[in-house]
Hints:
Blueprint: H1 2-27, H2 43-68, H3 71-76, H4 81-112, H5 114-118, H6 122-148, H7 158-166, H8 180-195
Helix pairs in contact: 1-8, 2-4, 4-6, 6-8
Amino acid sequence: MDVLLWVIVPYVALVLFVGGHVWRYRYDKFGWTTRSSQLYEKRLLRIGSPLFHFGILVVLIGHVVGLLIPNSWTEAAGITEHTYHVSAVVMGTVAGVCTLGGLAILIYRRRTVGPVFSATTRNDKLMYLMLTLALVLGLAATVAANVVDEGYDYRTTISPWFRSIFYFQPDPELMVGVPILFQLHALSAFALFAVWPFTRLVHMLTAPLGYLTRPYIVYRSRDTQLGSRAPRRGWERVR
Length: 239
């Protein structure tokens, strides 16, 4: 069971994550979009969307630092374990609350605004469910470990296990004694990675860089009156 949960499941999720994005890019480029619903409703979106996106950005940065950077690196940079722990707990809790709050507003908007609800697919519902589950479990694990209990140093167990997956030397024994909420949070995160390429979350891995170099779009008036100035050469009116 330990090998299944902490070796097979992560690798299956990562294969689906990478392979799914390749497949989606090759065969569903026109579906690679956020499927924005801004035209239907803006008031709630202006509150929920920035709250969610800025919160999730901080959450992702915190996970990258906590899981991928070893203790020795932060200590070499002059950051003590106590300083790192306090900063991680405070910033992680605030970012998690902001992210969940923004997500709650977005879900409320999607459920109560008629046109937005009509544009919601089963795929979107699954995405919101997986996102909410991973965020709730992560925030619950942080609060339970650092507020209810005396704290848990995940950088000695979860972080080495996570890095061992990418070294292709997985060590499932590191996850055996990890608190159950942290285990559930890790499994929910890999489940989210598995469905990620097949949802609108693909837009997170793209940026509109082409807009910086594309030519201007020329709009021509249909009015008979073109103005007081004579048209420039090359822009004469076509009769």
